[in-house]
Amino acid sequence: MSTKDTVLELFEKNRGFFISGEKIASDLGISRTAVWKAVKKLQSEGYEIEAITNRGYCLAKNSDILSVQGIRNYLDENASRLRPEVFVTADSTNNVCMKKAAHGEEEGYVAIAGAQTKGRGRRGRGFFSPADTGIYMSIILRPDAYPGTQVLRLTTMAAVAVCEAIEKLSGKAADIKWVNDVYVGGRKVCGILSEASYGLEDGRLDCVIVGIGINAYRPRGGFPHELSGKAGSVFDQQSSGKRNQLTAEVLNRFMAYYDSGATDDHFEAYRKRSLVTGRDIDISKGDSVRRAHVLGLDDNCGLLVRYEDGSEDVLNSGEVSIVGIEN
């Protein structure tokens, strides 16, 4: 860990309290000059660190910058093996993970960014990823316990984990629009994109990247026009360390489900939060759109539907929109 990161870890543990440069130097076994340089570097990265003569340094209580140290403060034991790395900006955290996975990065690496320049959603669409108000993260998984046909389970686990984390930290109810969008108060606050790679020789599932993008706060200036009628945020106003806490809580809950293996532990939680059950939907596959009524979810979270001609089907892929609601 670098000197800067070690100093930040100390500040995170004493957020809102002044610590003298002398004490920091003594506790960490470094020079006061090294402390000063670390503070200057952190300030240049946007951390609100106050410096007062004869009092020392203080990380502002209301600052809400993503950091490895801040996230680790909230990780449970089951998620402590994760290896988070935080970027101020990334092109796409899924891209970061895919490149690392291709070079042999092991399971448990998590790329987290405060902004994305090329965030991706389903079907190649862009994912709005402004700075300082969202959480954009992707996890490398190498799931021996899951056959390739069950990648959908990982997406649904992530959706439930996000819902539970939101409900715990905001007190707001969260729902899921099959298969990968989380809604709060009728507005989308999270999108999930899972991407898999398979062995060329045996076709076995080699790696899954689970990408999660969350609108923690409303972006400055509001959402773009095309999103203003359907996008929302988890929190109504910025608060100290909330993004770090939400990031960790999602990871805690996701890893608890993941470690349970290919079981149905999360299915009931997913079902009770389903926004589409009992509704009419339009199903998009390629260039075709077909209307159906949602009967429910099967034991793999596949969507049970009845088409207008009376035929029934189970959907494990595709995109749906709820009739009469802006999706």
Keywords:
Arc Repressor Mutant, subunit A; 5-stranded antiparallel beta sheet; alpha+beta; SH3 type barrels; 327 residues; 14 strands; 8 helices; 7-stranded mixed beta sheet; BirA Bifunctional Protein, domain 2
Q: How far apart, in Å, are the first and last alpha carbons?
A: 44 Å
User: CATH homologous superfamily of the largest domain, by name?
Assistant: Bira Bifunctional Protein, Domain 2
Alpha-beta content class: alpha+beta
| Residues in β-strands, percent | 25-35%
Quick one: how many beta strands? 14
The low-pLDDT segments are none
Can you describe this structure?
It is a single chain. This protein is an alpha+beta fold. It has three domains: 3-59, Arc Repressor Mutant, subunit A; 68-272, BirA Bifunctional Protein, domain 2 (2-Layer Sandwich), CATH 3.30.930.10; 280-322, Roll (SH3 type barrels), CATH 2.30.30. It has eight helices and 14 strands. It has helices at residues 3-13, 21-28, 32-44, 68-72, 93-102, 151-170, 242-259, 267-272; strands at residues 49-52, 56-59, 83-87, 109-113, 134-141, 174-177, 181-184, 187-198, 205-215, 280-285, 288-297, 303-307, 312-315, 319-322. The strands form three sheets. Strands 3-4-5-9-8-7-6 form a seven-stranded mixed beta sheet, sandwiched between helices. The mean pLDDT is 90.
